[in-house]
Structure to design on (216 residues):
């Protein structure tokens, strides 16, 4: 599959490596594909990853992964072109985190018009199939996470069952147990997992953790 990743930060790079390791072809979308920080990273990232503008990347991808800072999401989607993602699965990794520092380890949200980042993105892309995923773990553990306590769980949500099935298959190949949490209106709850995940990091200085759903 051709995967277009919109965002070239730590999350975008980690997922690019994961997707190429699974045999997919990846284009990393960024504002300046020729910037030295991008070309230097690409030179060491291995085969299967190229860089392009947001527009080029959205056109390239059969599946799209959104991973810029949420505060820039409207601009990134406009630069990518809404028509370029129509009918495609869009994995939303974002969390509506404010720029303010945490208070007692707790981050604050940016207000969203629709109640959550996932719902806002789906409203901006009504003809795409948005699936919230990869938002409750740090970039270091997105691909093939290893924990002594067992396989961690990735919680997902979205309105299209076929899209969620495809994303679930990708997650399982990436090493995750998957919990389908329902429609895109569950995004607010899933985005709260990011706040909880970060709270341990800020309070204890430890960032090597993940969530696990225990089943009976």
């Amino acid at each position: 599959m051709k995967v277009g990743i919109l965002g070239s930060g730590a999350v975008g790079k980690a997922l690019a490596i994961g997707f190429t390791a699974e045999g997919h072809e990846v284009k990393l979308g960024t504002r300046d594909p020729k910037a030295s920080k991008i070309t230097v990273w690409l030179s060491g990232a291995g085969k299967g990853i190229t860089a392009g503008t947001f527009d080029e990347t959205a056109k390239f991808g059969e599946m799209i992964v959104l991973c810029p800072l949420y505060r820039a999401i409207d601009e990134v989607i406009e630069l990518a072109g809404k028509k370029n993602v129509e009918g495609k699965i869009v994995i939303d990794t974002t969390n509506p985190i404010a720029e303010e520092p945490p208070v007692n380890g707790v981050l604050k949200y940016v207000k969203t018009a629709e109640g959550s980042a996932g719902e806002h993105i789906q409203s901006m892309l009504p003809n795409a199939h948005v699936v919230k995923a990869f938002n409750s773990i740090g970039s270091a553990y997105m691909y093939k996470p290893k924990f002594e306590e067992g396989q961690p769980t990735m919680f997902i949500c979205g309105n299209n069952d076929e899209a969620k099935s495809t994303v679930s298959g990708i997650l399982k190949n990436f090493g995750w147990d998957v919990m389908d949490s329902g429609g895109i209106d569950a995004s607010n709850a899933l985005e709260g997992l990011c706040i909880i995940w970060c709270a341990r990091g800020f309070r204890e200085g430890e960032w090597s953790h993940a969530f696990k759903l225990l089943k009976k």
